[in-house]
Amino acid sequence: MTDDIRIETVLKHIVDISCHRDQALLDISLLTAIQNLTGAKYARILEITATREDMFVHARAWLENERVIILNEYSQTRQVQRSLSYYAILAAAIEEGLSSIKDNAPDGTETLWMPVWNNKTAVACLELAHNKPISQQTVGVLEGLVQIYRNFQNILDYSERDTLTGLLNRKTFDSNLSKILNFRDVEFAAAKLLEQRRQEIPKTHWLAVIDIDHFKRINDKFGHLYGDEVLILIANMMQASFRSADRIFRFGGEEFVVLLRSTTLAEAHKVTERFRAAVEEHTFPQVGNITVSIGFAGIHISDSPVDILGHADQALYYAKNHGRNQVVHYEALVEEGQLQKEVAANAFEFF
Question: Which residue of 10, 21, 275, 348 has the smallest Cβ count within 10 Å?
């Protein structure tokens, strides 16, 4: 490959990366560029999540048989989430604030780790492996592409994330739920077929609405600075409690929404209850102990977005009107005769 062709190829990929306003398409563009420019036998984008106790890593997108695979809310592919300490070389690069670091295996494979920085925080990493040493010139080109990718990711984060908590915002909720609803017909048919063949416990998607109990009292008694700190800590606890493929949103004030991807009713109840218990057991600075109420409902093939949101909201208000600090399942309340199957008059008006 001549230098002129290489420059043209790099410029083409820069244009491709810069034209996207969607995280999945941005990831696809970067990995496609890596494949075309290096012929890497293995490459993936790792997402890095920080909690109070540790930093965790899981694959968000990767090359498989020269195709880019994206982990999303309706993908059936599972990725293991591991502590950052599992990736010793990556942990060292982050500790030293490096833009890249190499690791050589006994079989001659060279792996390049390139952290993606947001200010001084590593939010992701590009990992690629090649069966021969990667030249410093190539590393320089890749570092430039990662910087461009990082800049556009920061632009996406600014427009899609809540500025206080770092969680996804209301605008991105609409598109995330739409993706699930647009895909549900195919998924529903596949799930029914698997259930018939394997007699598996059926899985679906779930929507949970979470509200901090008596949050106004916190602001009134301790001030908004402590109220904001509670919101940030709650957001961190949500990221630690829910799974990496779940989507967490802040809607403003003390209200949060979670899209739980492809799981059973028992698991949906387990993960929401785990979060509720974690909040109850945590001591918040100055404020002390607080609780949350949670209502969740299934995302069913026959329901509209307004139905789904209304169902979860009805369950939430039932929880708040019957003692708070509990997880309530909408369909169970309907089955027990505690609620009528209709959209609550005070349901969120998202659409």
Answer: 21
Sign of the four-CA dihedral 189, 194, 197, 202: negative
144: left (phi over 0), alpha (psi -120 to 50) or beta: alpha
For the entire predicted model, the pTM comes to 0.66
| Residue 300, Cβ density class (10 Å: 0-12 exposed, 13-18 middle, ≥19 buried) | middle
The total of other beta-carbon atoms located within 10 Å of residue 222's CB is 17
Rounded Cα gap, residues 151 and 275, in angstroms = 33
Token digits for 8?
A: 């043209």
The sheet carrying 204-212 orders its strands as 247-252, 255-263, 204-212, 292-299, 327-329
- Rounded Cα distance between 134 and 138, Å, is 7
Lowest mean pLDDT across 95-104, 112-121, 170-179: 170-179
Identify the sign of the CA torsion 130, 135, 136, 142: negative
Q: Are strands 292-299 and 327-329 parallel, antiparallel or unpaired?
A: parallel
Q: How many angstroms separate the Cα of 331 from the Cα of each of 186, 317, 335?
A: 23, 14, 6
Q: Rounded to the nearest 5°, which phi and psi values hold at 62?
A: -160, 160
Catalytic residue among 53, 254, 267, 349: 254
The string of DSSP letters for 14-83 reads HHHHHT--SHHHHHHHHHHHHHHHH--SEEEEEEEEE-SS-EEEEEEEEEETTEEEE--TT-------EE
Q: Which residue has the tokens 């106790």?
A: 53
Query: How many residues can be counted in the chain?
Result: 351
Pairwise CA distance, residues 90 & 194, whole Å:
39
Tell me, yes or no, if 254 is annotated catalytic: yes
Specify which of 20-24, 45-49, 324-328 reaches the highest per-range mean pLDDT: 324-328
**pLDDT, tens digit, for every residue of 217-262?**
999 999 999 999 999 999 999 988 888 678 899 987 899 999 998 7
